[in-house]
Amino acid sequence: FFFLQSFKLLGFLDVKSVPCARESVLYGSLGSLVVGLGHFLATSRVRRSCDFAVGGFICTMLGYWFYCRYNLAQHRIRQRMLKEGMRNKILFEGSSLDPERKQTGNERGDS
């Protein structure tokens, strides 16, 4: 199958290995079709509709690229925080630094 193989867009962007690249190209082509066809149906001008289709592709692709990359960065930040929290939980569990452990007066140093 062709769509399972890796290919380079514009000679340098490997669509299979770069996160969000495949989805951006697919949504960009769909946006190109919608904008170009919509403009053609409204005006019946072929050349101008092709120009709008290219513009629709670029805008949709870049818009989804930034949206997807932002969500990916947020996801990685949440993963890193969760990993750090899990490591701290394992490290401090059962010790006097465990926030879930109820402290008594003797452990706090109150005599």
UniProtKB/TrEMBL annotation:
Listed transmembrane segments: 49-67
Superkingdom, natural source: Eukaryota
PANTHER family: CYTOCHROME C OXIDASE ASSEMBLY PROTEIN COX20, MITOCHONDRIAL, CYTOCHROME C OXIDASE PROTEIN 20
Keyword terms, alphabetized: Membrane, Mitochondrion, Mitochondrion inner membrane, Transmembrane, Transmembrane helix
Source organism: Buteo japonicus
CC per GO annotation: mitochondrial inner membrane
Official protein name in the record: Cytochrome c oxidase assembly protein COX20, mitochondrial
Family: Belongs to the COX20 family.
InterPro entries the UniProt entry points to: Cox20 (IPR022533)
Main location group: mitochondrion
Cell compartment(s), UniProt: Mitochondrion inner membrane
Name of one Pfam family that matches: Cox20
Keyword Transmembrane helix: yes
BP terms from Gene Ontology: mitochondrial respiratory chain complex IV assembly
